[in-house]
What we know:
This is Probable dual-specificity RNA methyltransferase RlmN. Its main location: cytoplasm. This protein is of the alpha/beta class. It folds into two domains: about 5-65, Orthogonal Bundle (DNA polymerase, domain 1), CATH 1.10.150.530; about 70-335, Aldolase class I (TIM Barrel, Alpha-Beta Barrel). The chain is built from twelve helices and 14 strands. The protein has helices at about 15-25, 30-40, 55-65, 135-155, 170-185, 205-210, 225-235, 235-240, 240-255, 275-285, 310-320, 350-354, and strands spanning about 5-10, 65, 70-75, 80-85, 95-100, 105-110, 110-115, 130, 160, 195-200, 215-220, 260-265, 290-295, 325-330. The strands form three sheets. Strands 3-4-5-6-9-10-11-12-13-14 form a ten-stranded mixed sheet. Helix 1 crosses helix 2 (about 30-40) and helix 6 runs parallel beside helix 9. It is elongated. The chain binds S-adenosyl-L-homocysteine. S-adenosyl-L-homocysteine binds near residues 265 and 297. S-adenosyl-L-homocysteine binds near residues 199, 263, 294, 299 and 340.
Amino acid sequence: MDGSTKQDIRKLTLSQLEEFFVSKGDKKFRAKQVYEWLWHKSLKNFDEMTNISKETREMLKEHFAINHILVDLMQHSSDGTIKNAVKLYDNKIVESVLIPTSKRITACVSSQVGCSLDCNFCATARLKRMRNLNPDEIYDQVVAIKDEAEAYFDRPLTNIVFMGMGEPLLNYNNVIEAIDKITSPEGLGMAPRRITLSTVGIPKMIKKMADDGVRFNLAISLHSAINETRSRLMPINNVNPIEDLADSLKYWYEKTKRKVTYEYVIWEGINDDEKHARALAKFCKIIPSKVNIIQYNPIDEGEFRQASKEAVEMYVRILESQGIIAKVRKSRGQDIDAACGQLANKNEVGELEG
Length: 354
Ligand code: SAH
């Protein structure tokens, strides 16, 4: 990263870059060439832009910097999962995770530094929210994982999930701009159906996404379909109760015709009884949906414990008997604190240096 105060060239849109070249007496198409180097090829250095004359490159260097995230620390789990601690331009750190399976390589990316939501079972909540990530900071996390997929697994990146740190719907514009770049041919050209945005479920924003006609997948961190329990787990439910969430999901389905996934952790003594399983099954009937039962990843010595195998089986039986698809997901990367809900910058290399 160039530490100077020069403008970051990647903050410019393609048309702003075109205006810049025209104002310098150059051709408009030069902008497209440079833009592709910056996004599609993710170059960090003007000198590598081989189809741009030396003179033009020098001129660009005088005006602009190319700011990039830096993978500060990379950790490998025994199950193949990789966790990146990523340093941002202001020395803040976020984490992203590469999750390999036999069929897929998934990038799990962060959308905010910290999180404002206070879900009681999540390590990121302990960090509080520091700031939103910029579109390029989200995009760069994906590129870093794409490169690691190729380098370590010799396979392409196939999927992206917004399940890292932060609440993507509280940084909506930047997340959408990042996804636009990830899916555009000048960017990574990935299909929107390979991208999943995971949210605590903010009804107003779910309706907005539906109005905006987004084409990626939606996952809701539900964890309980009973208000009292859900509010205890996720304080956001006090202001956005299940009924409002249900309304927004109906609206989502009417507009997009896309089914949703509910993410669900079952905890001992909290939601591991039949009453909660039946409430979930009822909720799943509102619109076409499926359930991912996630294993709880312990974050401290706190009140939460993963429910028994019998409780998980009871849930699956009840859901399946009502025709609902339920998958039990294994936890990945627990040994390096890379699993769901464990991202908390335990190795704050950059922060200490900064
Ligand atoms: N804010 C978004 C995305 C980040 S969390 C959201 O809430 O969906 C990604 C997923 O991990 C969510 O489903 C969340 O509920 C889950 N999660 C958080 N802490 C967890 C933990 N300790 N164990 C298992 N899953 C957890």
